[in-house]
Structures are given as C-alpha cells and as structure tokens.
Structures
1.
Amino acid sequence: AEASLIFLALPTPPGEDGSADLSYVLGVAGQLGKIIKDYKVIIDKSTVPVGTADKVHAAVAENAQVDFDVVSNPEFLREGPEWNNGWLTNAAYFVAITHQRFAINSIGVF
C-alpha cells in the first residue's frame, strides 16, 4: 500500500554562517514533487527554522501534479525541566493543525 504520510527526517547541519543547511530537506522535497501520484501529507521532522514548511511546499510544488500539504512536527518543543516535572510527559503531544484534510488523514499518528 502506498503511504499517505511522508516524514522528512533529514540532517540539517550548520552552514558556514551557523544557520541550518536545508539542502537535504529541500532536495528531497523537490524529488517528492516528481513522484507523488495522489494526495500526501509531507511532515517535516527535521530540526529546521521557522518558515521551512513554506520552502518545502514551494520545492514540492515545482513538480507536483497533485494536491499535498506540508506540516512541521518538531523533534522537541523545549528543552528543560518541563519534560521531567510531571506536566509534560512522553504521552503529551502538541500538533498545530491548519488544514482540515490533514487533520482527518492523520488522526492517531501523533
């Protein structure tokens, strides 16, 4: 069966100026546009700066002939004592959903 969710879990090493090097993420995103044949949700799981979902969307859209959505699911929300003080456990997840179609297709994933 074909996947309806595609996770991008790629390295983002620091560039020469210290910013995240998005070449792996955007390179794969560009290739996805060529191969997806029906609606997909592309989930960016890499540690990336704010605004990367828009860049991923643009890279996929260059070659995509079908509808798709791009969302970000960061590897962590915040480092610190909140993870161990009882109010935030490994059973608690925060996912921002802005697309109803994505929400319907991803219930149970997060």
Note: The chain has three helices and three strands.
2.
Amino acid sequence: SLSLSVIFSFKSFTEFNFSILISWTAAKGIFDNQSLLLYLACIFWTLGYDTIYAYEDKEDDKKIGVKSLAIYLEQNIKFWISLFYLCFISVFSFLAILNNINSIFYIFHL
C-alpha cells in the first residue's frame, strides 16, 4: 500500500510539475538544466504543501487504512515540512542567481 501512496503522490507531482518543464522550454526556447532545477524546486514545494494537506486528514486516513507521507513522517512532521520548503527556497534562489534576477525578487520571494 505504501507503493500505491507513492504512485499517487508521484501522479500529483507530474500533473503540476511536468507543466513547469513545458512552460520553461516554451518561454526560453530551449530545454536546459535550469528547467530541471526548477522542476526539482517545484517537487520540493509540492512535497511541502501535499504533506500539510495530507496531515489534516491523517486521523481519518488511519481509520480507513490509507497510507500517506504525512502518516509516514508523523513523528517529525515539522522538521520534514521545513526541510521540503528550505530545499525549495534554496533551489529557487539558486535559479534566481543563475538568471541575474533583480534583488527586489528576494524581498517578495521570502
């Protein structure tokens, strides 16, 4: 059942995050490593929000036997969610540096 949970989570990653690769390529006219970094950043962002969302239903999920990342990480949930978002901010900021984004970006980004 954990494998089904991972597959379902992967499905939600690919639905939203795959569009990142397409959009980046359309906007820049090239598929490059930076698009993969943005894809990775968005996976961390998705892990963060999806875990928070799943945590809200964890008691009901336990009752009916649904497995989720929130249940698996329940003992250290704050640590993991913080780590997911820290990874997102780190990779996203690195992309901003690579693309010479104006410093005003960091005020609104954080």
Note: Helices lie at 2-28, 33-56, 58-64, 69-72, 77-98, 104-109.
